[in-house]
Amino acid sequence: MRIIVLFTILICSVRSEAQTYILSNEQVVFSFQTITGKEVIVAKDTGNKYLVYRFGTAGNIEFEFPDSKEHSWDKFEYSFYLRGGGRQNEGMDLNYLQFTNEGYKYCLQYILRI
Questions:
Q1: Domain match, 67 and 81 both
Q2: What predicted TM-score, i.e. pTM, was given to this entire model?
């Protein structure tokens, strides 16, 4: 009986961790909710060991990139454009995080008007 209870606890804890957006050793870098209620999250390990992108709902992560967290920082590209404001124009801060998966390019864009 003790073995069954222990096995059930282990299975439930692994299952619940697999369906969590953020693991206990991660910090959110960027996140937002889509108009359909799904979450987009970019998180990093607190020790900066890996970077990960997740998409889905709390009960169902539909897409996670990369599959392997080894060398994950190399699988993302970050770029930005910064234009200071003045009398003639509005300042802008454009930030892009992108990656390619199975021939599709994913690009997250964050725009800050200064």
A1: no
A2: 0.74
